[in-house]
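Ticket #4471: structure output looks truncated?

Reporter: J.K.
Steps to reproduce: submitted the chain below (119 residues) through the standard prediction queue, then opened the result file.
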Amino acid sequence: MRQHLKSLIALTFGMALLGFAATPAQAIGCLSGAAGGAVAGHVAGHHAVIGAIGGCMLGHHLAVKKKEEAEANKLIADDALAPAGSARHSKDAAGIEKLAHKKVPAAMQWEQEHAAHAQ
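Returned output as attached by the reporter:
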């Protein structure tokens, strides 16, 4: 049991170091997900290490999605303020379309609304 705990601590520390190589939001997503996953895995049958790995992956994924959604909302707000036909408007629209292809909900909605207005 003691060796299992040492392995869990080493694995969590290693994931934390790898997580900090990414953006801070993604690292926090990994760390919080790993902590929750470790607890859930332990309760579900002493599989804390597997739970920590799965939790880190899920937390990282959710942090990336949250960051993309915030980026889409910022681009949409900037696009609304930019004069039509300006370079800024074109750049914002291109960024929103790129996020729409990644299936970011706010960007997909913006793209659908602008496609309807273009027709």
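Triage note (M.O.): checked the attachment and the full token line is present. The two ends are 66 Å apart (CA to CA).
Status: closed, working as intended.
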